[in-house]
Amino acid sequence: MQYIDPTLKKIIEEITSYDEMYDLIRMVDPIQKKVLSFENNAWHMEPGFCYDVYEEGHICKNCVSIRALNTDRTSIKTQFVKDKLHMVTAVPVDINGRRVVFELFKDIADSQDLIQEQLKEMQNLIIKTNELLVTDVLTNIYNRRFIEERLPVDFATHQALGIPAQIVMIDIDFFKRVNDQYGHLMGDKVLKEIAKLMKQTFVETEVIARYGGEEFLIYDPRSITETLQSTEELRKKVENHPFVFEDRIIYITISAGIYTIQNETPKSAIDKADERLYEAKNTGRNKIINY
């Protein structure tokens, strides 16, 4: 390594004193996806992305390092790394105002002692568990935790590449009336079917999430024209869709706010999309506000 900040050097010396306890130690900036790995008593800048170590070819849906940053405390998860089961410990550290994470990898299962079928079952269980952590149980789309852990990474990636992207905030109009008049089971039915309509409409969009209650968030890395077309298509689908539960049929509408992301934080962009959403609700509902 070249020049090392004295504070960073002290932390590195402390962390790497445990080198024999761990199979791999990394210092990660999970937002920018930059990585330094400690191997053979030396630090090396890794090419590629921080998630390349998992050999899965995509950003982790349940990023332990982003979670460590968000909660400001050590986080742990189990993950297969190169066909071996590891416990990954993420430790957030502040270095002169810059937040980084130290990742400590420990092989916790010797593949020699486990038959291949057991390893596969364990791997499937870990994948399923990590998926459940970021999935809304009712609607089977992503939850707010996924948004908080994933959006900072997507923002950094698309801004660096100059890719346009929009935040779409969607709210069900008069949803409280549905629960009050028809019961929560009917309300649940509405939430689940709207989530399905979102996935059918935003086919190429990976980040579709239930943000809270009857509010949804879509992160759409396409042009504003394409985002508007899909949002309007969704609005019409919902408006014309019969929501059936037992002997009851109801029709509902949605309102939406769209904001084109600038060079800013996810929270700022979400707040601005939310402002447009509430303008749509306060000016008649069943409409989309974008400006």
Automatic annotation (TrEMBL):
Residues 163-291 form the GGDEF domain. It comes from the Bacteria. InterPro entries: Diguanylate_Cyclase, GGDEF_dom, Nucleotide_cyclase, Rev_trsase/Diguanyl_cyclase. Gene3D superfamilies: 3.30.70.270. Signal peptide: none annotated. This is GGDEF domain-containing protein. It comes from Paracholeplasma manati. The lineage of its organism: Bacteria, Bacillati, Mycoplasmatota, Mollicutes, Acholeplasmatales.
